[in-house]
């Protein structure tokens, strides 16, 4: 499974995350910094951010509604420009197509800009199998690649879980780096090494932030300019995109790009917005001679038209991850998926199945912080709830003890008589566990609660009895 | 004005003080209180865990129970929000959707009711103490009630207020999350406790009994001296 990372079970992964102090420090300070920047960037000079969100949602919903039409328009326009378009239903098909291009070009050296889609289809292992040297040129991805293919823990800042000292160590070990952990010095080292790779590359592979159907163009948003080089220097370019990542025209692209950069990194614009339209033309000084577009479905058609469709509105800004209190404490790797956080907890079970990922929808307090920040208004916490409903009612994957308990709950809560009797006997039933006015070691469900916290002892007199018994207006 | 109290099962069984304070407060503000005996649980624990079928029966019961009420007022933002969810849950149901809608429209969280319906911003309370306030997620984000508790607390005589750092962050309760994902919940509530401690206050106040039970229970376990009060208890002090 290509979206899967690690081999441990969910609780083990969470346990590892919780005990990784480095990671937690890095994540907490990144989250705090990001939240502040995002707030500033979405309130300054933009006018009404809520109106922007409505507009963003509208654009994405429109595209999903007419996806067939826009995909066709995009393909036609890319072909008109002399590009090749391949529609891959599965990740295997995508990989096979890319393999054939690599073989035809007898390519040995490949540079890549950041792409979650290529992670999703496990492209790198296939390329390496073909004997290619594959180099990730996004700084974060590059660090992870050097560090024995450590998986990404965040969709925008893949190496978020590492602090500078850890990065310095990786560089020291793998590149013979001798300088400090100063980010500028580290970045300089990466630039020097990567520059040579860019110049020698046979093929450049990119992801795609947005494709513009009307013109057959692609937009890549980066802060490092690496996507510029990946697309300008190698003779052949392959762009891999999720089938939903497109907009009708440049007008909508502009709206979504400014929302993306503000929400993702708190910048009005990132340092580079690279837009490419087809292969190199006669008068162009650089750009690829050959251009391939691989549009990947990999399960997305199954989501379209169903109750989870809105998840396809996502523009991968990671704002939901940056505010998620659960992600804050367990980090990205705990999700066991290349897509972590709220978006990951919604998307991963859809792409990777409930068998593997049934815990993820429960790894949320449904606090709604994600939904509140999502620039395209995906009701993330509602979708997490929807997953729970499917797991319980359609998939039947809930534990039996829980099912029985909830059945009993259904009966008890729905029947005033049962509730009355039940709630009346609560104090007596719990009395063995009560010390003073609290319960410190409870039975059943209370056990997990009281391992961490005290639980209040039940009222001696239920509120309803107090109300009935007292004389109106008289303070008890 | 006639007000029907939706006490919530937690308050009914475990946090009577909160319910009593809410009843007394509303009476002091001139309301006539009713407490229908047939009220049970709003269904949230089962619903949020994905047991929609099971919880619908409880929801129907609640809709019936409060059908004659003029105003339904709850000392829990989260449970009041649950009533607001009913119309979505019963969407398309020829009988229950409309009834659910009627209930949602007349349901208020306590402070919201005082400020928006009674139009009272100063309840005449006095409370000597250093206080911080936990903004519960469901109440602020989902129900959208942010200002009313702040307005009411500002007007309490003697009360000194300190804002809680990281106030927008969830306390880690999340209903069954607290037991299902106890490991994660613990980390979340611990960070909340640290933030409460940073303020140096004597009292942590909130408008959602469940969140308070979570944070309070953890502080008690850790032996922290901060006392936990529901906002109804503060507003009922005079
Ligand atoms: S779900 Fe929304 S907030 Fe999260 S990454 Fe996607 S667009 Fe951004």
Can you describe this structure?
The complex is a heterodimer of chains A (476) and B (238). Chain A has 476 residues and is of the alpha/beta class. Chain A folds into two domains: 10-301, NagB/RpiA/CoA transferase-like (Rossmann fold, 3-Layer(aba) Sandwich); 400-471, no CATH class. Chain A is 52% helix and 11% strand. Chain A contains 23 helices and 13 strands. Chain A has a six-stranded parallel beta sheet, sandwiched between helices. A four-stranded mixed beta sheet of chain A has the order 8-5-6-9, sandwiched between helices. Chain A has a three-stranded antiparallel beta sheet with strand order 11-12-13. In chain A, β5 and β6 (217-222) form a beta hairpin. Chain A is elongated and about 90 Å long. Chain B is built from 13 helices and eight strands. Chain B has helices spanning 9-13, 16-28, 44-48, 52-65, 77-89, 96-105, 110-117, 137-142, 147-154, 177-180, 182-199, 209-221, 231-235, and strands spanning 2-5, 32-34, 71-74, 107-109, 126-134, 157-161, 203-206, 227-230. By secondary structure, chain B is α/β, with parallel strands linked by helices. The mean pLDDT of chain B is 93. In chain B, strands 2-1-3-4 form a four-stranded parallel beta sheet, with helices on both faces. A four-stranded parallel beta sheet of chain B has the order 6-5-7-8. Chain B has two domains: 2-116, Rossmann fold (3-Layer(aba) Sandwich), CATH 3.40.50; 121-235, 3-Layer(aba) Sandwich (Rossmann fold). The interface between A and B is large, with 68 and 67 residues. Bound molecules: iron/sulfur cluster (SF4). Iron/sulfur cluster binds at residues 314-320, 343, 373-376, 378, 380 of chain A. Chain B: Belongs to the LutA/YkgE family. Chain B: GO terms for molecular function: oxidoreductase activity. Chain B: One of its GO terms (cellular component) is cytosol. Chain B: This is Lactate utilization protein A.
């Amino acid at each position: 499974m290509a979206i899967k990372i690690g081999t441990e079970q969910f609780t083990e992964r969470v346990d590892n995350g919780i005990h990784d102090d480095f990671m937690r420090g890095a994540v907490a300070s990144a989250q705090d910094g990001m939240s502040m920047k995002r707030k500033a960037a979405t309130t300054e000079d933009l006018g009404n951010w809520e109106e922007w969100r409505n507009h963003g949602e509208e654009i994405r919903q429109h595209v999903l509604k007419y996806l067939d039409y826009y995909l066709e328009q995009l393909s036609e326009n890319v072909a008109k420009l002399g590009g090749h378009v391949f529609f891959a239903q599965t990740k295997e098909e995508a990989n096979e197509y890319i393999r054939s291009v690599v073989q035809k070009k007898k390519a040995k050296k490949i540079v890549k800009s950041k792409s979650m889609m290529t992670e999703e289809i496990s492209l790198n292992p296939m390329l390496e199998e073909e004997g290619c040297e594959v180099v990730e040129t996004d700084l974060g991805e590059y660090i992870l690649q050097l560090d024995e293919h450590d998986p990404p823990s965040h969709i925008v800042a893949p190496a978020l879980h590492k602090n500078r000292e850890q990065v310095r160590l990786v560089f020291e070990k793998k590149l013979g780096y001798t300088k400090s952990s100063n980010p500028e010095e580290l970045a300089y080292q990466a630039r020097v090494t990567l520059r040579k790779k860019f110049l020698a590359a046979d093929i450049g592979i990119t992801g795609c932030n947005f494709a513009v159907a009307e013109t057959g163009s692609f937009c890549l948003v980066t802060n490092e300019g690496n996507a510029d080089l990946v697309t300008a220097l190698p003779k052949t370019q392959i762009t891999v995109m999720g089938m939903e990542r497109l907009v009708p025209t440049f007008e909508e692209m502009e709206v979504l790009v400014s929302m993306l950069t503000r929400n993702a990194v708190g910048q009005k614009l990132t340092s580079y917005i690279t837009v490419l339209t087809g292969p190199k033309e006669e008068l162009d000084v650089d750009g690829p001679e050959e251009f391939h577009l691989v549009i990947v479905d990999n399960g997305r058609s199954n989501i379209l038209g169903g109750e989870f469709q809105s998840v396809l509105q996502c523009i991968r800004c990671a704002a939901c991850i940056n505010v998620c209190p659960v992600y804050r404490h367990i980090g990205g790797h705990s999700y066991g998926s290349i897509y972590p956080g709220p978006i990951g907890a919604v998307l991963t079970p859809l792409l990777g199945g409930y068998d593997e990922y049934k815990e993820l929808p429960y790894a949320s307090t449904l606090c709604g912080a994600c939904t509140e920040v999502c620039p395209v208004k995906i009701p993330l916490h509602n979708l997490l709830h929807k997953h729970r409903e499917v797991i319980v009612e359609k998939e039947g994957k809930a534990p039996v003890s829980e099912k029985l308990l909830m059945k009993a709950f259904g009966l008890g809560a729905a029947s005033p008589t049962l509730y009355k009797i039940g709630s009346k006997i609560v104090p007596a039933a719990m009395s063995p566990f009560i010390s003073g006015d609290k319960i410190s070691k409870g039975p059943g469900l209370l056990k997990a609660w009281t391992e961490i916290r005290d639980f209040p002892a039940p009222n001696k007199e239920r509120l309803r009895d107090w109300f009935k018994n007292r004389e109106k207006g008289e303070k008890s | 004005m006639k007000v029907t109290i939706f006490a919530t099962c937690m308050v009914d069984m475990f946090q009577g003080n909160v319910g009593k304070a809410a009843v007394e407060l509303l009476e002091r503000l001139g309301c006539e209180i009713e407490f229908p005996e047939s009220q049970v649980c709003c269904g949230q624990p089962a619903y949020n865990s994905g047991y929609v079928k099971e919880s619908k029966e409880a929801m129907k019961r609640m809709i019936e129970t409060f059908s004659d009420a003029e105003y339904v007022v709850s000392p829990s933002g989260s449970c009041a929000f649950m009533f607001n969810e009913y119309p979505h849950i019963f969407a398309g149901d020829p009988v229950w959707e409309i009834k659910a809608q009627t209930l949602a429209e007349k349901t208020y969280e306590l402070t919201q009711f005082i400020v928006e319906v009674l139009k009272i911003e100063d309840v005449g309370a006095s409370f000597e103490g250093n206080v911080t306030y936990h903004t519960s997620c469901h109440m602020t984000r989902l129900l959208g009630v942010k200002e009313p508790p702040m307005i009411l607390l500002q007007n309490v005589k003697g009360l000194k207020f300190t804002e809680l750092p990281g106030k927008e962050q969830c306390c880690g309760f999340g209903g069954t999350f607290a037991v299902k994902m106890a490991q994660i919940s613990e980390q979340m509530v611990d960070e909340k406790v640290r933030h409460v401690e940073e303020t140096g206050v004597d009292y942590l106040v909130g408008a959602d009994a469940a969140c308070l039970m979570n944070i309070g229970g953890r502080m008690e376990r850790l032996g922290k001296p901060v006392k936990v009060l529901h906002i109804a208890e503060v507003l009922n002090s005079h």
